[in-house]
């Protein structure tokens, strides 16, 4: 595959796509996404046909332009695009087109951010169902109408959450989110010889899904915050209702490290950040963003409560109610 120039790489990393979806593009553009054609070059594979359409070898070009499954997804887009019309492009040229604002506007009269969002969600949808069909022999493929409906919903949510106005300022209080997403907030508290971390998961109505706390045997503020992030990232796997995650904290170092792990400012954070990214890789989409302390106060108050009462693990059924945790008023939780 052709290598990308610096400008196109910057377009990827500076895009408002969730980090997990940027990593999907990164794998595609380096040709290291484990498609059957890539695996067949290194091991003996007899059946190389596409798992979803059964026609031709599963390669990046086939996935992007020629797979019947992908053609259905693209035709269901708001613009009814026939994706095979772009089959003359290489995958890298296709991505370069998607990130070129002027070219997309001239050729399709569209906003390139919107078509990039749709292309990304379509590829992620292909990869999700492809893996289900390949590795889960009991999996029953939904009908195409249902898949297209779910795709459009994910696309609408991603466009909404990725819009420039959505992140124009830091949230100053806990705020609702698009339907189907969950929000994970994490916070910390310190005692004389250890620290406590807490994570709270809420649905788009603001209702509690799960809350957890843990004792951390360190007083390092940076490591404690990273361990809180690790706890929050891990608990989403126990929530069956959503694979779309918004991770929030008032700790800039941790959020920046999640969004750009290669620039992690503190070596102490690296292991916990790596574990957090691994847990988040099981989500279909995730976003990490910094908020003010007031918007994250519930998780800090929960950590304080845990430190006072020496409670760790799943605390959903014994914790103080969310209204009291959301208060900025200093809280004392001695039983």
UniProtKB/TrEMBL annotation:
Keyword Endoplasmic reticulum included in the entry's annotation: no
Pfam families: zf-RVT
GO molecular function term, any single one: RNA-directed DNA polymerase activity
Keywords: Nucleotidyltransferase, RNA-directed DNA polymerase, Transferase
Record's keyword annotation contains Endoplasmic reticulum: no
Domain annotation Reverse transcriptase zinc-binding: ranges: 6-74
Protein name, per record: Reverse transcriptase zinc-binding domain
Origin organism lineage: Eukaryota, Viridiplantae, Streptophyta, Embryophyta, Tracheophyta
């Amino acid at each position: 595959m052709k290598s990308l120039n610096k400008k196109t790489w910057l377009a990827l990393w500076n895009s408002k796509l969730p980090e997990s979806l940027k990593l999907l593009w990164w794998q595609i553009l380096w040709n290291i996404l484990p498609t059957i054609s890539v695996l067949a070059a290194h091991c003996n594979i007899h059946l190389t046909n596409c798992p979803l359409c059964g026609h031709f070898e599963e390669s990046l070009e086939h996935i992007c332009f020629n797979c019947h499954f992908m053609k259905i997804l693209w035709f269901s887009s708001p613009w009814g695009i026939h994706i095979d019309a772009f089959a003359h492009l290489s995958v890298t040229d296709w991505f370069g087109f998607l990130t070129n604002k002027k070219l997309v506007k001239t050729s399709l009269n569209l906003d390139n951010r919107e078509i990039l969002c749709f292309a990304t969600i379509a590829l992620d949808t292909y990869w999700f169902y492809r893996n289900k069909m390949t590795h889960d022999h009991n999996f029953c493929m939904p009908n195409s109408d249902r898949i297209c409906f779910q795709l459009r919903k994910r696309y609408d949510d991603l466009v909404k959450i990725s819009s420039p106005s959505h992140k124009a300022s830091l949230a100053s209080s806990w705020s609702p989110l698009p339907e189907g997403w969950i929000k994970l907030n994490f916070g910390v508290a310190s005692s004389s010889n250890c620290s406590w971390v807490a994570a709270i998961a809420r649905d788009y109505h603001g209702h509690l899904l799960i809350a957890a706390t843990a004792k951390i045997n360190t007083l390092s503020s940076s490591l404690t915050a990273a361990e809180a992030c690790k706890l929050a990232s891990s608990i989403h796997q126990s929530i069956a209702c959503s694979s779309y995650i918004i991770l929030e904290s008032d700790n800039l170092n941790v959020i920046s490290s999640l969004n750009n792990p290669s620039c992690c400012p503190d070596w102490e954070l690296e292991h916990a950040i790596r574990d957090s990214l691994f847990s988040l890789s099981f989500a279909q989409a995730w976003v990490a963003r910094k908020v003010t302390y007031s918007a994250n106060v519930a998780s800090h108050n929960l950590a304080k409560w845990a430190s006072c009462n020496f409670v760790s693990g799943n605390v959903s059924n014994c914790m103080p109610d969310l209204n009291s945790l959301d208060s900025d008023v200093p809280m004392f939780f001695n039983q």
